[in-house]
Amino acid sequence: FAGYLSWLSFLTDLLSVLPMPQILVVVLFFKMKGPEYLEHRKVLNIFLLIQYLPRIFRIILSSKKLIKTTGIRVKAIFNFFLYILASHVLGAFWYFFSVQRETSCWHRACERNSTTDLDYTGCMSTFYCDDRSTTLRNITFFNEHCGVEFPGDTKPPFNYGIFLDSLKNDGNTGDINFPTKLCFSFWWGLRNLSNFGTNLTRSNYVWENFFAILISITGVLLFVYLIGNVQTFIQLTTTKSEDIRQKIKIKEQVLETWMEKNHVPEDLKKEIMKNIHQKLEKDKDADLENLFDVLPWYTKKILKRHLCWDILSQVQFLKVMDEKVLKMICDYATPVTFPEDKIIFQMRHPVDRMLFIIEGTVLTYSTTSDPGRTHGGKTTTNNGASPSIATKQLGRGQIYGEELLTWASPNKSRVDKLPTSTEIVKCHTKVEGFALSAKDLISVASKCRRWWNLNNDP
């Protein structure tokens, strides 16, 4: 069954792009000059109409796929394209049928004005365009029976119905340039498709009425399809706006709670909320996990100093330190976030940074056992596994790695080797804070040599 559908799809695609009517025009062109052209014209008409069935089917399939994979703007453009395409096709059919309706009137005139078969053949030869001499042709009676110019209060000699405009418009079906024919036919199709064919004055010709019905049905279907998409667009826009509003509100509430908890000053809070609101307006899914990634540098600097200052001022080694040093340490510190159970420092590994804890809990574990030795039924290792008993707990407002302050002091001789951790430092919960690398701490101590003064320095 899948193979059958695949072949059906391939055949539909092939028939959609195969220019069968155009090929028939080339093949039958030289055979349409004689009396047999009526049969040839019928064949051409059939293929001209049939070629649109696979094309319409292909458009329907493409439309369904487009709805699933593209945005609303592309759908709107596609709807407009369908409307323009339908107007062009219907206008082209209208022009094509106008020519055929006029030739049908000529046939009728020949039948009415011919008493014998010879007369009829001679009359019909006047518009076969064969190689016979045209000097003796009399076409004045065609104007009498098929003319389009008549007084308004008189009955026309032949009722052209909806095709009269094409024949009356300065000989639209005559020998005029192609752009004029194209634009006039397209305008006619667009106008009558827009008003569903309600302004069409039809005759009692059956195929003309079928064509008028087709115009009305096509106009209604395209209009309903367009209105349906417009309604969907409005609903999606409303839902999207409400969704964006709710997401922004939730994120702003979380941020408000965080700032209240960290005692952020009111003026700084307003500045932060202004920047966050602008960011969320542009992208409702913006990642606010790290607030410092979305703030401008000057706001980020002020917030870092606010969050770090109280912590630094409580450190024993920094209590007597000049404010310039504390501010520079705050500026050099970088925001960090660690997940639960993350090991920050390994035992016997260098302490390469200081950690200022803003939120969360950190536990330290000390052990003197060899890797793989069992204590109380639990195995301890020195290469990453946490021992079973915590020796110390660090929380909000505390620091780990204070020994780096002494190590980086410009007042002491310092070796390049970093201090070694004597314990495992692991996150008990999610931890937010700031980290100051040993390299940055040396830069701060070097730049602030004049003001560097640890209260335990000699």
UniProtKB/TrEMBL annotation:
PANTHER family xref list: CYCLIC NUCLEOTIDE-GATED ION CHANNEL 15-RELATED-RELATED, ION TRANSPORT DOMAIN-CONTAINING PROTEIN
Name of this protein: Cyclic nucleotide-gated ion channel 1-like
The Cyclic nucleotide-binding domain, residue ranges: 317-415
Subcellular location: Membrane
TM regions (residue ranges): 6-30, 42-61, 76-97, 210-228
Organism this protein belongs to: Prunus avium
Topology in the lipid bilayer: Multi-pass membrane protein
Region (Disordered): 368-388
Keywords: Ion channel, Ion transport, Ligand-gated ion channel, Membrane, Transmembrane, Transmembrane helix, Transport
GO molecular function, one term: monoatomic ion channel activity
GO CC terms: membrane
Family: Belongs to the cyclic nucleotide-gated cation channel (TC 1.A.1.5) family.
Keyword Transmembrane helix part of the UniProt annotation: yes
Record's keyword annotation contains Protease: no
